[in-house]
Amino acid sequence: MEAGAMRVVRAIRLGDPEVLVLGQAPDPVAGPGQVVVDVAVAGISFVETQIRRGIDRWHERPQVPYVPGGLVAGLVRAVGDQVDAAWLGRRVVATTGETGGFAERALVPAENLFLVPDGLGLPEATALYSDGSTAQGLTEHARIGPGDWVLVEAAAGGVGSLLVQLARAAGARVVGAARGRRKLDVVSELGADAVVDYSESGWAKRVLEATGGAGPDVVFDGVGGEIGRAAFEVAARGGRFSVHGAASGEVTVIDPTEASRRGVTVIGIEQLFDFGPHVRRWAERMMSQAAQGVVRPVIGQTFPLEAAADAHAAVENRTAVGKTLLLV
After folding, report:
1. What are the pLDDT digits (tens) for 127-144?
2. Which of 81, 125, 145, 169 is the most exposed place for a label (fewest CB within 10 A)?
3. How far is CA 267 from the centre of its chain?
């Protein structure tokens, strides 16, 4: 490789995971207010796979070719003007904006740096910063109380696996819903009181049975579509139905008159738009809870940089358990 160059993965067009191709790019140079991070870990989210396909409705479509990856962890390699030199060599998690993380080095605004606590690995910190802050925010908004029954969809996923643990820590009882034996076993190990397989018909009836016929007081809907709809149908009277994702391709939309007739409070997906200012606080809380052994991120699979296409495919085709990461 040429001097002053680094390996990157680019999406050369929009489409299937195969559009992610390994190449080279010049080393980034930190400008004023910026730092360069030596990337050890790059995070991947389901939304990023949809952006790559060009089918995500919530983010601007990137100009191709582009380098995916909005979250990295590693050591600060260089700092630009107006940046405290004390950051040099520190272990950090950092958001890059929407793109730029699938690379050996990433350019990051200094205000996006988050110091990783001693004793916490960079892969774990990456999972807790992104999925952990989301799970913490969802849990706070849903006001889980001791003795509540909580249904978590996609309970073996990055966010879902942490929601199971946070609900248990709040004194709630948990029904974890996922697809297939391997995922259900993971959810049971995390402490769920009951597990149901929503690839089987009649799964929602089993949720009702697990909750003694009353239904869950809180539903975390990260799937949407028919699964989200079925989950709403079994929510308890006076319960909360919290929407945070649409892994099925469509967000669960609940008619407000129907919700009020059922006595269910719907916390819509727009809640996520207000999460930004709280992410750091929630991430700090999750990392301290991880240090105390209250929660642990499930990192189900890791891939090297050159296998980014395989990593995206694993996230997209539902074979992934927990968080999927690139180790650079």
Report:
1. 999 999 999 999 999 999
2. 81
3. 18
